[in-house]
Amino acid sequence: MNTFNVGLIGMGTVGAGVAKILLEKGSPLLEKLDCVPVLKGIADRNPDVKNKLNLPSDILFTTDAKELLNNPDIQVVVELIGGLHPAMEIITTALEKGKDVVTANKMLLALHGSELFSKARRHGKSISFEASVGGGIPIIAALRDGFIANKIEAIFGIVNGTTNYILTKMTREKVKYSDALAEAQRLGYAEKDPTMDVEGIDSSHKLAILARIGFGVDFDYKNIYHEGISAMDLSDIWYAHELGYTLKLLAIAKKTENNIELRVHPTLLPHDHPLSSVNGVFNAICITGSAVGETMLYGKGAGQMPTASAVVADLVDVALGRAGITFKAMKTFSGHCEYVPIADIQQFKTRYYLRFSVVDKPGVLAKISGILGKYEISIASVIQHKARENGTVPLVMMTHLAEEGNLQKALTEMKQLDVIKDHTKFLRVEE
Amino acid sequence: MNTFNVGLIGMGTVGAGVAKILLEKGSPLLEKLDCVPVLKGIADRNPDVKNKLNLPSDILFTTDAKELLNNPDIQVVVELIGGLHPAMEIITTALEKGKDVVTANKMLLALHGSELFSKARRHGKSISFEASVGGGIPIIAALRDGFIANKIEAIFGIVNGTTNYILTKMTREKVKYSDALAEAQRLGYAEKDPTMDVEGIDSSHKLAILARIGFGVDFDYKNIYHEGISAMDLSDIWYAHELGYTLKLLAIAKKTENNIELRVHPTLLPHDHPLSSVNGVFNAICITGSAVGETMLYGKGAGQMPTASAVVADLVDVALGRAGITFKAMKTFSGHCEYVPIADIQQFKTRYYLRFSVVDKPGVLAKISGILGKYEISIASVIQHKARENGTVPLVMMTHLAEEGNLQKALTEMKQLDVIKDHTKFLRVEE
């Protein structure tokens, strides 16, 4: 039996999971492989980690990642520290030293993927990153290999478990955002500073990775529109629910003729849409391909063992030599790709949910619908709720297909109307 | 750009789809590969196929598969004729002639997989079979590669689109079995002789393939329990629906300590189970892994282009050299595997739905529950419906966990009761 030596850098939750699988080799397929990934060394800045892990004595432990990077016995480096620095430098050095790389670092790949991929190609090494999106769901392999015969038309997904947990809790238990967030933090699903998750930034990183693979194009990450859930009102979730829609934070990629749509925002989905029943910390990604049609992959999008499952799958790919072939063949994240502009959010067309806080007197609907009509936004349905707050009533509307730019203009013009109080809320819809 | 020459044997619906993708190369990833699968020859017993296809002149067409098998330029043979013979001989010859094989033939793999895999290993060639289960869903790759770090605990799936279409139609439109089947046949979803699909045989073939990969063991295919949907009463679908359950034909594989459970039968699932909302010709497979937890893959399980999508993905794997590595590394379907007995259906434990046709008089429930109690079957809920047919009323029960053998004995004993008329129906439940 051949072995392939692994150096693990960053021994947090996921790192400990990876070590556990590599040391226990509990899987029947894993233990029968021709070439098995073997844990050789671990680096973590915290020296206490060594005692906590109860490592076998033949595994090198160091607080200095350089020790692993300089060790010629280590053939593949697993980067699990996250963030841009020093992850970037560690991966770069590993490649320069002739080591393959496995990473779960979505932020680094979204922002500097092309650079790192070019570097890996120059050194004849590979970067594997199944764990960067969807935790244990083999979404990268599916898009890149399983659906290779397809022109990918759309990728829709719930790719952030933290926000899905919060929205599920708000929807099911009628809990307001701040309380749901606090509970997520208590359970370890949300970080102390939840910004990356709740503002949709983490989702936009993952979307960038999926879109680069699925569409085989390059684009400017900065132009991905993202909007989080921190401003979500419980009442909108509930009015929309009554109208037959479930609220999810979606990452959406669509290929149009000349450009691509890439956006992350709270989105209303019909209750019977497969993504509507993806609850809690689960993730799911729908892919529409020209040959395969509609597909969905579902599973735990984060957490120790699901993510470790994906990291170890990558390590097996590297050990068997498949990762190198795949990386060489996959002409994404590189100069080989056509650069495509991301469509401006103003040009997006969707249906909208609108909630106005209006003064309850005759003529209000006429004024609002007049302005909407002026901007070619037609109304599909209207519900006036009785719930009265501070002298206003909520007026909820669903529109037909409309252009975002027109909606923005209409909403700006409506600010002049004295019958509208407070901020008007709107949500985008996908069918 | 390197090319890898493909010979396609069997030019039915799926074959035409494969040809279309290989000739059009519409996918951005496919067209940028280092080594591209190129359609070199087609064999079909029907000479008319040639004209129908409108093939480019440089593609060899023959009515004799041997011509492709003997052609040294052809490096990979795609077997798409289905059935046991001559598919078996074609694959065997292709391997002997030093060609790799791609097939969608689930029956052949279920019955003679180990034999064919040993043959391929002896000749240093590979057999790829992503299209054999779940159409375009990359389920084989997910189980074999994506979840390799896992001990697979359970595989549950809707793997037959024909029966799922029929059950969906019966459930949604309250149409009886024979009418739903006729509609499926009219739409081309069911064959003229639907036996393989409706009796659960096709599902058991697919289950055998999934279980061999997932559990990494070998077993006797003949011992897989299978039961189809041809005897399904619409009334049971509806009584169960009222109780909160959806009826699906499931293929179920579970690993227990000393053996495995492998069974195909109509199964009741709670409405909120992810498989309950898989409708029409869609397939979905849930996999529970020790690290990854619960996952589900969903998509079109059959049809021209979804299946062709999987075949072409396999061809790319072969062309790039990944298929050979994977096939060599994957110690399933072979003498390398532990042989494990399939648990006898009598030992299975599930909850049951029971429907008795009883005479409407006092003491009936006491008699029935007495016999159930004698065999350690306890009742979770009872509904007596008012609907009266031929002087009897339906008595519907849900049991707690019970052993199938005990249930069978109880039902046999109840045949002596004069208060029970007709055949007693029962359905197994999964949560």
TrEMBL record, chains A, B:
InterPro entries: ACT-like_dom_sf (IPR045865), ACT_dom (IPR002912), Asp/hSer_DH_NAD-bd (IPR005106), HDH (IPR016204), HDH_cat (IPR001342), HDH_CS (IPR019811), NAD(P)-bd_dom_sf (IPR036291). It catalyses: L-homoserine + NADP(+) = L-aspartate 4-semialdehyde + NADPH + H(+). Residues 353-431 form the ACT domain. Pfam families: ACT (PF01842), Homoserine_dh (PF00742), NAD_binding_3 (PF03447). Keywords: Amino-acid biosynthesis, Methionine biosynthesis, NADP, Oxidoreductase, Threonine biosynthesis. CDD domains: ACT_HSDH-Hom (cd04881). It comes from the Bacteria. It is an enzyme of class 1 (oxidoreductase). Its EC number is 1.1.1.3. Gene3D superfamilies: 3.30.70.260, Dihydrodipicolinate Reductase, domain 2 (3.30.360.10), NAD(P)-binding Rossmann-like Domain (3.40.50.720). Pathway: Amino-acid biosynthesis; L-threonine biosynthesis; L-threonine from L-aspartate: step 3/5; Amino-acid biosynthesis; L-methionine biosynthesis via de novo pathway; L-homoserine from L-aspartate: step 3/3. NCBIfam families: PRK06349.1 (NF004976). Belongs to the homoserine dehydrogenase family. PANTHER family: HOMOSERINE DEHYDROGENASE. This is Homoserine dehydrogenase. It comes from Candidatus Brocadia sinica JPN1.
